[in-house]
Design a protein that fits this description.
The chain is mainly α and about 425 residues long. It has a single domain, classed as Up-down Bundle (Growth Hormone, Chain: A). It contains 16 helices and no strands. Helix 2 packs across helix 8 and helix 15 packs antiparallel against helix 16.
């Protein structure tokens, strides 16, 4: 069968809908705004005013809801990927939006550490897993390999870019309506947007062949999950995911407190510390699109190596930058970390599709995505390091070393053969 010379308008509608879904699911990347409001005083001390009923948390406690959300997200990508492959992307996206909204409501109404764990952590993680698993594979099916990196980058950029608007919006809602009001308002917004956008997701019609393929995908091009699990490259991809993701996740959860500390003597930044989180969201999104685009030309692993080496150097330098109280340098090193992190989330699904085909990408990428969930152990460990030592210095050194492990592994990765 002759391939389509240009993807139809419907293909771009699916890309736009998937991006819109991810723009809501990305609330996770603005968590540092809530963390800044939850810590800072004696853990267990009751809050006053709009936040009456809430209690302050330790750094590790405030990170657990974030970590559990990410781990649950990753674990749910596996059943969600199977649902997407079998029933189509709409079911998973709509379910994801409803779970995320319910999680925000539970967190807002319970006003407690347990509520954050159950609502934001578990229910929110389930919603993110089902919604995220539907958006990217649906878009990939409409495009051939020559555009795969760019298309994946655009769709996942929505998730990374969510912090651009959620961070200032959350800061405003917390200041005006309290912690509970912020969760309830955003839960309602996400329910409407994700359900509406999810309804527009769809697979190509039977017989459709994406441009650049030139023929129907053959059975030998597509690997089942069982076949993939019997290749060493799968485990290599999981390690690559852990290495690239943990550094970004460490910066994401600490972005607002980092600017608070570095710019404590600058009134404007001290009052608007959410700016680093929003800036990170912008660079995170740009890194997904940019890395996806140049990986189509330079190669996936060349892009991974370049991003990783530069980012590792910045991670090692971050403690010194914070001690220098240089705000421009902080934005620079954090920006590089966000770019690398966003790039990894563009590269890994594209590599999974390159290695194992697009037909079973929902489930196959869900299994590879376990590496992203495992990466949350680093920011969680950083929370304990901060509570014990009073700083994040050793956490950044650990993160940089792990990223270099991923760079080294990239040199030996090869496409699996039957």
């Amino acid at each position: 069968m002759i391939a389509n010379t240009q993807p139809p308008l419907r293909a771009y509608m699916v890309v736009a809908a998937g991006t819109a879904v991810n723009l809501c699911l990305g609330i996770l990347y603005a968590w540092s705004v809530w963390k800044a409001a939850l810590v800072g005083k004696t853990p267990g001390e009751p809050m006053q005013g709009l936040d009456e009923g809430w209690h302050y948390l330790s750094d590790a406690q405030a990170t657990w809801a974030y970590a559990i959300c990410g781990i649950t997200f990753a674990l749910c990508m596996i059943p969600a990927g199977r649902v997407q492959d079998r029933f189509g992307p709409r079911v998973g996206a709509v379910a994801g939006g409803l779970f995320l909204a319910l999680g925000c409501v539970v967190a807002g109404l319970m006003k407690s550490y347990l509520g954050l764990i159950l609502g934001f952590g578990l229910l929110g993680g389930i919603g993110m897993g089902f919604g995220y698993a539907a958006a990217t594979p649906a878009a990939v099916r409409w495009f051939g390999p020559e555009r795969r990196g760019l298309i994946v980058g655009i769709v996942v950029a929505g998730y990374g870019g969510a912090a651009i608007y959620i961070s200032p919006l959350a800061k405003y809602l917390i200041a005006s309506y309290g912690l509970s009001g912020s969760f309830l308002a955003l839960g309602g917004l996400f329910a409407v947007v994700v359900v509406a956008a999810g309804a527009l997701l769809d697979w190509p019609p039977v017989g459709y062949v994406a441009t650049g393929q030139g023929k129907q995908t053959t059975k030998s091009d597509d690997w089942s999950a069982g076949e993939m699990l019997r290749t060493w490259q799968f485990y290599g991809l999981v390690i690559l995911f852990v290495a690239s993701a943990q550094s970004g996740l460490l910066v994401i959860v600490n972005a607002t407190p980092m600017l608070n500390k570095t710019a404590a003597q600058i009134a404007f930044f001290a009052a608007n510390a959410w700016l680093l989180s929003s800036f990170g969201g912008l660079v995170n999104a740009a890194g997904r699109v940019g890395t996806g685009q140049y990986s189509d030309r330079l190669g996936r692993f060349n892009a991974y190596i370049a991003n990783g080496l530069i980012s590792a150097a910045c991670l090692f330098a971050t403690p010194a930058v914070m001690r220098s109280e240089s705000v421009p340098m902080l934005f620079l090193v954090v920006g590089v970390a966000f770019w690398q992190y966003g790039g990894g989330l563009s590269l890994l699904p594209a590599i999974t599709a390159d290695y194992y085909g697009a037909k079973n990408l929902g489930l196959n990428y869900g299994l590879v995505f376990l590496g992203w969930g495992l990466a949350f152990m680093v920011p969680q460990a950083a929370g304990y390091i901060k509570d014990w030592t009073g700083s994040l210095d050793y956490a950044f050194y650990l993160s940089g070393a792990m990223l270099l492990v991923g760079v080294g592994l990239s040199f030996v990765m090869r496409r699996p053969v039957r």
